[in-house]
Amino acid sequence: MIVIIAGLPGSGKSYFAGRIAQMLSVAYINNDKIIH
């Protein structure tokens, strides 16, 4: 399953994604951390 979370800057996307990943025990990939 792939879940994409989108929203405005500062809306809590990373926080929300991290919490959901913890609750579901799944991997969390932060696009901000990927080097292009």
From TrEMBL:
Q: This protein is called what?
A: AAA domain-containing protein
Q: Which SUPFAM superfamilies match?
A: P-loop containing nucleoside triphosphate hydrolases
Reading the lineage from the top rank, the first entry is: Bacteria
- Matching InterPro entries, A to Z? P-loop_NTPase (IPR027417)
What organism is recorded for this protein? Parafilimonas terrae
